[in-house]
Amino acid sequence: MDVAALADLAPGEPMLVEVGSSPVCLVNVGGEVLAVHDVCTHALASLSAGWVEDDRIECPRHGAQFSLRTGGVLTPPASRALPTFGVEIRDGRVLVDPTPSCEHPLIR
Questions:
Q1: Does a cis peptide bond (omega within 30 degrees of 0) precede residue 11?
Q2: What is the rounded CA–CA span in Å between residue 57 and residue 14?
Q3: Rounded CA gap, 73 and 85, in Å?
Q4: Which uninterrupted H or E stretch holds 2?
Q5: What pLDDT digit, counting tens, does each position of 16-68 carry?
């Protein structure tokens, strides 16, 4: 699914997009666009309102950190990984595969 222009995605700044019925957080990490489910698996906060350092994102509510590459939990209080989404850049557009790597553990 075409979700954004690459030019609108500033390096290190999270962007919230909708991919089908899922909120997805996009981040340009050193020219590579990564995508994870936008909802923190600990407190259901929007990760696109969080902070990015290198290839990790921090939840704005309680500070849990996740890998933008794998969705894995890097710090508590979260204990469940985030779904990730495949990303392709084509003709300056960001395309996201709508199939998550797994189901979100708290959202059905």
A1: no
A2: 9
A3: 16
A4: strand 2-5
A5: 999 999 999 999 999 999 999 999 999 899 999 999 999 999 999 999 999 99
